[in-house]
RNA sequence: GGUGGGUUCGUAUAACGGCUAGUACUCGAGAUUUUCAUUCUCGCAAUAGGAGUUCGAUUCUCCUACCCACUACCA
């Protein structure tokens, strides 16, 4: 039909965006970009009671961190973003700022017999609900019960007129037709049929705050904004028949968007959907960014926990979608190329925190040494380490001054051992500060006279080594020396490692000695001797 | 309760009627390594249950079970 692809992500600013919401936004974004179309962010703030300050800014910032940038919508400063591709202005993108638009559409439905005025107060409805519940039934405002309630279908015309003018808590409800089978097609789920007898007369517009409800606002805006595909969460599937009926009532069937309903993200263990609590309990974030609520409770965010946005996006993309082959690592560009609604999984996906970490580990390895070094330097500063611009890999342990090259060399050696940059300090602190204590178990295992006497001989060998100190120069001769004497390699080396690292783990001895230098090496050998005996 | 959706190793998924049900994470074993880590090799482990259609069913149909969503003047 040649319509330009236009999709939207339409969050309501009632709190921080959950990672499931980010996934929905991501799929919309991928779909739009693949088709060369537009990705729109629309803020659905039609519920004045649930509005949370800062939530909108949070949502936009979170998406931007992920690299999900809208072609149209609101930016993180609240300013309108609009592309040149827009054929006519679609702004504003906040439904609260569009309130003037909706009333006439609601009235149009009434004029054409698709909707009616309802004057039942909240208390009255609560009462009939309570009565039904007492009888073990569920009250539904539908074609049967509407005949017994106060609305423009049951009241005389004059009374309706009077109430419209004199009262301010009435609503407009959709008049759901009787016994009609709605035939729908979902891009992911296929053909679905629902009988309208099982549906209720949903409120479309509220006089009290002069705002539409989700259903009306959603259909009107999707129409006005020329949305071609609606990709949203599974929780909307039950209201799809209503939405179909609304498009029909407005006479917009020919431009009705196609629908795709995504399954939910489930909690890692047990049943149910992923919630904030699961993250707190199991120690993983459920939010893209850190969030502090009105009560002052702070929730973890992927960004603050040290995840790379590329890793976060990648793991999210693979939760409920697959490329149809074994590829697991995808950049945003690759995702845009490979994405397809055909490969979306119908069932809910349990989130696996282990796999999330694995993704970050993989992306960490992919980063350049420079980039990782820049991320490591602020952490070093927190530990009182000064990083200078001096040339070469030089270390001054007394002044705690190390060159950029020194840090970079370390990063290149340790990055394979970490999942997060935040782990670098624990992994490599001994390359900046001499160990002050020695791991008990390792000490008991290796620091024995028959071992350390040999270790000190090896230390003498290293100290008197007259070539330039590099790993390449040192490694071969060192090994030959120990093997030549037929000394037990593992035991001797671990005595040295205990002295240099404080434990029997860490880099190769040649690496460490090359980095810290002769002087520091000697000092550490002396210290362990004084401390543990020699 | 009603309506709709779903169900392949522990987890994420592949196999769009046809090999021995593949891959990744996790876990286990081995190899390499001066330790640790890495790397490599191998291994454990699944079609919810039952009918039917078919030469043949993970795939199609029906029933049962279980899970999820919705059932607001919330989105």
CATH topology heading of the largest domain:
Rossmann fold
Radius of gyration in whole Å, from Cα? 33 Å
Q: Give the overall pLDDT as a whole number.
A: 94
Low-confidence stretches: none
Query: What class would the helix/strand composition place it in?
Result: alpha/beta
Counted up, domains total 4
CATH hierarchy class name of the largest domain: Alpha Beta
- β-strand number: 19
For the termini, the CA-CA separation is 86 Å
What is the percentage of strand-forming residues?
5-15%
How would you describe this protein?
By secondary structure, the chain is α/β, with parallel strands linked by helices. The protein has four domains: 6-93 and 264-349, Rossmann fold, CATH 3.40.50.620; 97-262, Alpha-Beta Complex (Glutamyl-tRNA Synthetase, domain 3); 367-428, no CATH class; 440-532, Orthogonal Bundle (Arc Repressor Mutant, subunit A). 42% of the residues lie in helices and 12% in strands. The chain contains 19 helices and 19 strands. The protein has a four-stranded antiparallel β-sheet. Helix 12 (369-382) packs across helix 13 and helix 16 packs across helix 19. The longest helix is centred in the C-terminal third of the chain and has 24 residues, at 509-532. It is elongated and about 110 Å long. The mean pLDDT is 94. It binds one RNA strand of 75 nucleotides through helix 4, strand 8, strand 9, helix 6 and strand 16.
């Amino acid at each position: 039909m040649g319509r330009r692809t236009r999709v939207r992500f339409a969050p309501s600013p009632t709190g921080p965006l959950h990672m499931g919401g980010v996934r929905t936004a991501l799929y919309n974004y991928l779909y739009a970009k693949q088709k060369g179309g537009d990705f729109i962010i629309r803020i659905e703030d039609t519920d004045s009671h649930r509005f949370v300050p800062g939530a909108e800014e949070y949502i936009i910032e979170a998406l931007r961190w992920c690299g999900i940038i809208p072609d149209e919508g609101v930016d993180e400063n609240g300013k309108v973003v609009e592309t040149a591709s827009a054929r006519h202005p679609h702004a504003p993108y906040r439904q609260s700022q569009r309130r003037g638009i909706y009333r006439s559409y609601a009235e149009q439905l009434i004029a054409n017999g698709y909707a009616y005025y309802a004057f039942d107060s909240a208390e009255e409805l609560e009462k009939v609900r309570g009565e039904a519940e007492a009888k073990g039934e569920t009250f539904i405002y539908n074609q049967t019960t509407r005949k017994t309630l106060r609305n423009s279908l049951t009241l005389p015309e004059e009374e309706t007129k009077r109430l419209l003018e004199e009262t301010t808590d009435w609503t407009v409800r959709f008049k759901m037709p009787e016994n009609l089978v709605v035939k729908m097609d979902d891009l992911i789920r296929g053909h679905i049929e629902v009988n309208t007898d099982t549906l209720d007369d949903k409120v479309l517009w509220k006089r009290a705050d002069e705002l539409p409800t989700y259903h009306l606002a959603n259909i009107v805006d999707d129409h006005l904004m020329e949305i071609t595909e609606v990709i949203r969460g599974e929780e909307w599937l039950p209201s799809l028949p209503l939405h179909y009926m609304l498009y029909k009532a407005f006479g917009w069937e020919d431009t009705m968007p196609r629908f795709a309903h995504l399954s939910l993200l489930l909690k890692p263990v047990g049943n149910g959907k992923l919630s904030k609590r699961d993250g707190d309990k199991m120690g993983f974030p459920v939010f893209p960014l850190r969030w502090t609520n009105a009560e002052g409770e702070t929730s973890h965010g992927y960004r603050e926990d040290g995840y790379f946005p590329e890793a976060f996006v990648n793991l999210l993309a693979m939760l409920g979608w697959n490329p149809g082959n074994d590829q697991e690592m995808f950049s945003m560009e690759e995702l845009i190329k490979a994405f397809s609604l055909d490969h979306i999984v119908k069932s809910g996906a349990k989130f696996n925190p282990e796999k999330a970490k694995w993704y970050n580990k993989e992306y960490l390895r992919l980063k350049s040494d420079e980039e990782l070094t820049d991320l490591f330097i602020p952490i070093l500063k927190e530990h009182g380490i000064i990083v200078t611009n001096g040339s070469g890999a030089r270390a001054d342990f007394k002044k705690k001054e190390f060159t950029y090259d020194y840090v970079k060399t370390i990063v290149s050696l340790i990055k394979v051992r970490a999942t997060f940059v935040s782990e670098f300090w624990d992994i490599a602190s001994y390359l900046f500060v001499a160990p002050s204590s020695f791991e008990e178990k390792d000490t008991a295992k290796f620091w024995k006279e028959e071992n350390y006497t040999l270790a000190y001989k090896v230390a003498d060998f290293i100290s008197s080594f007259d070539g330039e100190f590099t790993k390449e120069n040192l490694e071969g001769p060192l090994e030959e020396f120990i093997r030549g004497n037929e000394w037990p390699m593992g035991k001797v080396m671990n005595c040295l490692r205990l002295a240099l690292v404080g434990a029997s783990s860490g880099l190769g001895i040649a690496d460490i000695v090359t980095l810290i230098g002769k002087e520091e090496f000697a000092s550490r050998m002396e210290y362990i001797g004084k401390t543990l005996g020699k």
